[in-house]
């Protein structure tokens, strides 16, 4: 008998709910967000096991940790729920959505494929966002005093003192703090000749698991035939034309 498991994940605790094929809740428990405890809880559930949790900060780690211990693992896009909200209800809703196949968006996870490249890309995006945010704050500081800052000369180290001198003394210290933050978070630039994060080799085809997967998309309505020129008009009008 299939077991559908919903896991509501948080930083310090996880709520695990198990339902059967009929939708009846079989068990529910609150566990510490610990890898060994989660593995033991999953192993205590009978096969076949179908696990579902939402996309989040710990979803990649949980996918890599729990995928060897379940027959099916689905990571769904987080959605906003209306009405009363609790961890137990969220875990139960995840298990029921997996059982009914009503998950609209499934997030693809491949923790062991291009891991280094993916992490470097994420860090690069964060550094660029921090540097861009600091630059916008610097320009906003000058615009707040009625000083136009066209171009990127306001960020140059050689012209920095001239720009700061245009500000009143009460604001010059604030500009100094922002410039210090900009120097601490420079935008990374590409270096020619540097070895890439992962050598470009032939991509490995990702095969589907041997366990048959159920479709998590709702069945579409039957396709309606497009009307042609002959059946656009009613049948009695076509008789009159003849």
Write a concise keyword list for the protein shown above.
single chain; 242 residues; alpha/beta; Nucleotidyltransferase, domain 5; 5 strands; 14% strand
Please give a structural write-up.
The protein has 7 helices and 5 strands. By secondary structure, it is an alpha/beta fold. Among the domains are: 3-100, ATPase, nucleotide binding domain (Nucleotidyltransferase, domain 5); 115-184, no CATH class. Strand 1 and strand 2 form a beta hairpin. Helix 4 (115-143) packs antiparallel against helix 6 (169-184).
Q: Count of DSSP helices? A: 7
Largest sheet: spatial strand order: 3-2-1-4-5
Count of individual beta strands: 5
Spatial shape: elongated
What oligomeric arrangement do these chains adopt?
A: single chain
The CATH class of the domain at 3-100: Alpha Beta
Order of helices and strands: EEEHEHEHHHHH
Strand content: 5-15%
Task: Provide mean pLDDT, rounded.
Answer: 79
State Rg: 29 Å
Return residue spans where pLDDT drops below 50 for at least 5 consecutive residues.
195-212, 217-231
Q: Quickly give the CATH architecture of the domain at 3-100.
A: 2-Layer Sandwich
Instruction: Spell out the CATH superfamily of the domain at 3-100.
Output: ATPase, nucleotide binding domain
Please report the distance between the alpha carbons of the first and last residues. 65 Å
Q: What does the largest sheet look like? A: 5 strands, mixed
CATH-defined topology of the domain at 3-100 = Nucleotidyltransferase, domain 5
Q: Roughly what percent helix? A: 25-40%
Q: What structural category characterises the helix and strand content? A: alpha/beta
């Amino acid at each position: 008998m299939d077991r559908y498991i919903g896991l509501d994940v948080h930083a310090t605790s996880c709520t695990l709910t198990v339902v059967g094929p009929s939708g009846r809740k079989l068990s529910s428990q609150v566990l510490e967000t610990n890898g060994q405890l989660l593995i033991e809880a999953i192993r205590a559930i009978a096969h076949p096991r179908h696990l579902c949790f939402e996309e989040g900060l710990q979803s990649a780690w949980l996918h890599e940790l729990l995928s060897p211990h379940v027959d099916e693992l689905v990571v769904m896009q987080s959605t906003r729920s209306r009405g009363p909200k609790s961890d137990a209800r969220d875990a139960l809703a995840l298990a029921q959505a997996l059982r009914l196949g009503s998950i609209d968006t499934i997030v693809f996870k491949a923790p062991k494929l291009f891991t280094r490249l993916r992490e470097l890309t994420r860090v690069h995006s964060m550094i660029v966002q921090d540097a861009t945010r600091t630059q916008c704050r610097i320009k906003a500081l000058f615009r707040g005093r009625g000083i136009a800052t066209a171009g990127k000369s306001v960020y140059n180290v050689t012209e920095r003192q001239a720009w700061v001198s245009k500000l009143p003394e009460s604001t010059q210290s604030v500009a100094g703090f922002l410039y210090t933050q900009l120097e601490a978070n420079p935008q990374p630039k590409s270096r020619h000749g540097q070895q890439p994060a992962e050598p470009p080799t032939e991509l490995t085809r990702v095969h589907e698991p041997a366990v048959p997967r159920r479709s998590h998309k709702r069945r579409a309505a039957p396709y309606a035939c497009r009307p042609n020129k002959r059946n656009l008009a009613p049948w009695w009008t076509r008789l009159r034309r003849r």
